[in-house]
Amino acid sequence: MVGIWGGICRACLLGAALAAASVASARADVVIGIAGPMGGSFADVGRDIKAGVEIAVATANARGGIGGEKIRTVTVDDKCEAETSAAVANQLIGKGVRAVIGHACTAAALPAARVYAEGGVLFLSPAATNPRLTDEKAGAFRLAIRSDREASAIADYLSARFKGKRVAFVHDGGVYGQGLVEQAAKLFADDGGAVAMTESFTPGEKSQNNLIGKIQDAAVSAVVLGALQADAAVIASEMRARGLDAALIGNEALALSEFKALAADAAEGTVFFLPLVDKSRPEAVNLILSLEERQLMPTDIIFTAHAAAEAAIAALGKGGDLADEAAFLRKPGASTVLGKVTFDGKGDWSGATYAPQVWHGDAFAPLP
Predict the structure, then answer these.
(1) Where does residue 9 rank: exposed (0-12), middle (13-18), buried (19+ CB within 10 A)?
(2) Distances, alpha carbon 347 to alpha carbons 38, 106, 176, 319, 327, in Å
(3) Distance in Å from the first CA to the final CA of the chain
(4) Looking at residue 105, what DSSP letter applies?
(5) Residue 275 — pLDDT band, cuts 50, 70, 90?
(6) Rounded CA gap, 176 and 335, in Å?
(7) Which CATH architecture has domain 148-251?
(8) In angstroms, rounded to a whole number, what is the distance separating the alpha carbons of residues 3 and 21?
(9) Same fold for the domain at 28-147+278-353 and the one at 148-251?
(10) Which of 29, 80, 112, 226 has the least CB density, counted as fewest CB within 10 Å?
């Protein structure tokens, strides 16, 4: 009997030990969520966010993770939709995430930010630009630049190059496109610029013939466009087909490969504005090498996503709750591929600024 009971006890103890080890192992992982558009028109953005975060996590794990605990990632597709983003944000919280990097589209980032704030989860967006994301104080941080600063950058560019010339301002009626264009028009007009027209159009149409006619009649030297890439390509193509040589100046959606593919030669010379992301820093060497191994281009979003992940990992490593993590990000901040990154009281990246880019051939480059 003793032998039988002894065997049973040893088996019980072994099973309990294995169960405890399994639980400890599961708890040992620090989970970071990756959220973004993983399919559709913005799949490039989702891919770049995922790549930037995964490389940062791999580097951190090679250095011991967070306090000796391994970091693992969980990826969700928010489809750039508000309802979907709230649902996947709750899914991530259910999976025990400590931080989330992503939600590029403002429509998705806003509801997700509220979910994370309520769940005590650190959230950093590398791409959402709408001022509301931080103005509403939902607890979000971002390594994208606010779109209201983009309007200022566009207006400054127009004042420097089109002072005394007529400029058209055109938008798709969306929150981002309309807000950007109307603010740029106001700032340009306040500086003495000539706003020839401010016009909206219906997005998703195969032709914008009526709009192009109005632009032609207005006899403008430049067109400022607030639209997504497919609509922008239609407008650019039809402008050039009519022989209109007005400069086309757009928002950052025109940096996407889809715009170039759809607009083809009509994209040539199109100017748009992107956050100025310094990829030449010594800290970026390992990231560049990792991207070469993956055969990926070193896009701005990969860099901002990587830096956001580095900032999140550094904040989590300090211990404490969400308030402590937020305080660390504001000051002293985190060392990243973009240098020391800090955030202001709202959660906006302190070092963010815009710079004009221009399409030449199959690539774009900083405007001279």
Answers:
(1) exposed
(2) 25, 15, 19, 19, 10
(3) 89
(4) S
(5) confident
(6) 31
(7) 3-Layer(aba) Sandwich (3.40)
(8) 27
(9) yes
(10) 29
Extents of the domains making up the chain: 28-147+278-353, 148-251
Structure confidence at residue 21 (pLDDT):
42
> ∠97-90-129 over CA atoms, to 5°?
85
Q: Tally Cβ neighbours within 10 Å of residue 190.
A: 10
C-beta atoms surrounding 157 within 10 Å: 21
Express each pLDDT in 185-242 by its tens digit: 999 999 999 999 999 999 999 999 999 999 999 999 999 999 999 999 999 999 999 9
Ramachandran class of 337: left when φ > 0, alpha when ψ lies in -120 to 50, beta otherwise: alpha
Give yes or no for a contact between 35 and 102, defined as CB atoms under 8 angstroms apart: yes
Enter the pTM of the model: 0.71
* Alpha helices, DSSP H, located in 295-368: 300-317, 322-330
Q: Residue 297, Cβ neighbours under 10 Å: how many?
A: 12
CA distance 101 to 129: 14
Q: Find the length of the chain.
A: 368
DSSP state of 349: B
In angstroms, the Cα distances linking 191 to 26, 153, 158, 164, 220 are: 59, 13, 10, 11, 18
Question: Taking the domain 28-147+278-353, which CATH number applies?
Answer: 3.40.50.2300
How far is 293 from 296, CA to CA, in rounded Å?
8
Mean of all residue pLDDT scores within the chain: 91
Residue 194 phi, psi (nearest 5) = -95, 105
